[in-house]
């Protein structure tokens, strides 16, 4: 059965789209019009749904700016879910170690369906930083180094199906065409780590390594971002070794539970 024919399914889909979009915004929140545009929901419908969510505590509205933010009820639910799903505390020390060893900004991201979501950010000592990635930021698989690392180690049939069904060029340009992604996947599998040569923001480079579940599925990634000259070709093997070392150790720790 088409899920949209299930009573209430369309409302659920719209509500979750609004909440996901809110989760990607910076702490100041976002307005109704921007949320409606980003989720392809009409403004009146978006406002009605957001108001209903606010009544239940799932979102808040800043009375000064009119922007919407995630609400306290989601925090309470998240703390309960964290007991089963949260691995960020285990990952946090590896993120900190990478930031300390390299001087770059280090991250831990999780796969959620066809996207990656940044869970942890730790800035290193180098004073010039990239702000492409922050906690809550989502990117499609294959975009940014974390998503490329994960996509590269998905089962071949799963990755190929994603590539043939997904068009990233409209939002991210021809550098994210199917053929270009296949080439970067091959390069990632050759070295073990992914490289994003400033494909999202000019001058902002990234590198990432997949972290695996006990069954060998790429579910998370550790990554680094910084300016182009800090990711020069002669330094990439060093950064790659550090990423792979921490990704391997984190994989082993998560497997042990």
UniProtKB/TrEMBL annotation:
It comes from the Bacteria. Residues 73-256 form the IclR-ED domain. InterPro entries: GAF-like_dom_sf, HTH_MetabolicPath_Reg, Tscrpt_reg_IclR_C, Tscrpt_reg_IclR_N, WH-like_DNA-bd_sf, WH_DNA-bd_sf. Keywords: DNA-binding, Transcription, Transcription regulation. GO terms for biological process: negative regulation of DNA-templated transcription. Gene3D superfamilies: 3.30.450.40, Winged helix-like DNA-binding domain superfamily/Winged helix DNA-binding domain (1.10.10.10). One of its GO terms (molecular function) is DNA binding. SMART domains: HTH_ICLR. Residues 9-72 form the HTH iclR-type domain. PROSITE patterns: HTH_ICLR (PS51077), ICLR_ED (PS51078). It holds the Pfam family IclR_C. PANTHER family: HELIX-TURN-HELIX TRANSCRIPTIONAL REGULATOR, ICLR FAMILY, TRANSCRIPTIONAL REGULATORY PROTEIN. This is IclR family transcriptional regulator. It comes from Leucobacter komagatae. The lineage of its organism: Bacteria, Bacillati, Actinomycetota, Actinomycetes, Micrococcales.
